[in-house]
Amino acid sequence: MLGDRAEAEEIAQEVFLRVHRSVRDFRGEAKLSTWLYAITSRLCLDRLHSGARAPHAGETELSSIADPGPNPGVTLEASELEAALHRAIAELDDDHRMVIVLRDLHGLSYEEIVAALKLPLGTVRSRLHRGRMALKSRLKSFLR
Amino acid sequence: MNCDEARTLFSARADDLLTPQERISLGAHLQDCAECRREWERFEQTVGLLRAVEEARAPAGFARRVVDAAARESGRRRILRRLFVPLRVKLPLEAAAVVLVSTLVVLLVRQTPELQRAPEVVPRPSIVVPAPVPAPKPAEPKQTQAPTEAPSREPGAPAPAPPAARPEPGAIATLESSREDDPLKKKEAERAAQEPAVGRADASRRALKAAPAPPPLESRARGPFHLVGLLRPIDPATLEARLTDLVKLVGGTLVPGGGPIGAGSIVEIALSRDAYPRLEAGLRQLGDLTVETQARSFPEQLRIAIRID
What we know:
The structure holds two protein chains of two kinds.
Chain A: H1 5-22, H2 32-50, H3 58-63, H4 72-91, H5 94-105, H6 110-117, H7 121-138
Helix pairs in contact in A: 1-2, 2-5, 2-6, 5-7
Chain B: H1 3-8, H2 10-14, H3 20-32, H4 34-52, H5 62-83, H6 87-111, H7 113-117, H8 139-149, H9 169-178, H10 183-194, H11 197-210, E1 227-233, H12 236-249, E2 253-255, E3 266-272, H13 276-286, E4 287-294, E5 301-308
Parallel strand pairs in B: 1-5
Antiparallel strand pairs in B: 1-4, 2-3, 3-5
């Protein structure tokens, strides 16, 4: 979501601290995971909008994610595709990226996304659709 | 269904959220439109790639760092909590403290007779306190009589309480007459008599200090009245003379009020506690006496105010 491993770790730590701080206020009205996603997404968006970030250190981090496989040719292709995918995700609008991450990377239902981001269902649907379409365009060269 | 309409349904199709009608319409369009079919395949691949991304794993030592940070924060919060107690705790605590203090005050007052009596003593009404008018002549004879009559009192009766310890023209006149041979003191007393009220108080004190046998200030009745009564005289015409005689008879002192005793006036009497029953009996002979307020217990020297109806 942030495109930077160090920042992500920092935010993840802050998420757990917030949970630790306010777990007594959690009334069980939503799933615990939804509550965690709500805190995480809010912190991520705050960080992205704060302007206090290191200038796109994320891309190098994302491109370095590779799973070494037995076949060097296949490994290279997969590595390139994965890097392209992460780059494309990183280049999405923050709002689109957030919905994509929650839905496709973490498998949240639409209702859970609505609860976590406190957005109308229609907004979630349209953001998801536009984000996926944007990704499709950016990954065109890798798609059959 | 045209191509644009069909492509807006891709996302819902990928999530299997199409209505039966949409599913049929989109399926029919994709069968007929090769371009949209290709677009759908790319779209489906894209979503597949996204869903195949492995979940990020926390780096080594992350859990330890979180636990350490939480422990540090808990320590800071404990300190802050001690400094700033939240309102939901603070308010009940403060309310309990108020109740506790109130209860203690009530108990203390109930168990301390001095405190219990204090509010019962009638505060001295401001109307009774006569402002020292420059040289009120009618007061002079009364004041000069008081010391001379003292020896004729009953042996057991204590000395009558002289008037309140405030500058009184009568007292000054007495002192003046007793110190006629001292021209310096005489001048001082004369000057004091001409001074305004506040200045005269100092002069009076100086004169009292210099007097050969001044009545002890402690013996004068002080503080608020121990009894306030209302007297409806039988014969208002003779009231002043009879009241003056009565007070003399019981060994008390009629504090000059600066005017004749009659309807609407307030008479201030200083006398000993033992003499009070005789005074009350005498007052009841003068008219209808109603005791309006009375201290629970009398001190040795009493101050009494009688309002004349």
